[in-house]
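Moderator note: this is an archived Q&A kept for reference. The question asked for a predicted structure of one protein chain; the sequence and the answer are reproduced below.
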Amino acid sequence: MAEPIRHNPAITPTGVSDPQRPSARPATPNGNVLPFDQVFRGELDRSRSVRLSGHALERLQRRGIAFDAAMSARLNEGVDRAAAKGARDALVLVDGTAFVVSVANRTVITAVDPGSMKQRVFTNIDSAVIS
């Protein structure tokens, strides 16, 4: 049986090449294919971790907030606790640093260090977690 046509040069615009098919399963750097359960667990873990919005990244950099793995783990724990209570938008305090988080999206909206909390008023949140 003949190979199906994947690319028709007669109708392909100039500058567009034959698209590469993605591999069926992710491979390790040495070329071994990973088992499905390992790939699934990795994707699940990645979906559970909190993401930082562009605004939050800018605030962390501008305010000199050190965001390391330990702080990330405590922030994730705080978001998990807020989600378990049905929170939508939460203020999560980690070592005096305040993170406003969209719990449903698991996304940090902004971050405020203790020196920048002048009025100590946070709006548009429905929960607060001290983590």
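Archived answer notes: Residues 79 and 128 are 10 Å apart (CA to CA).
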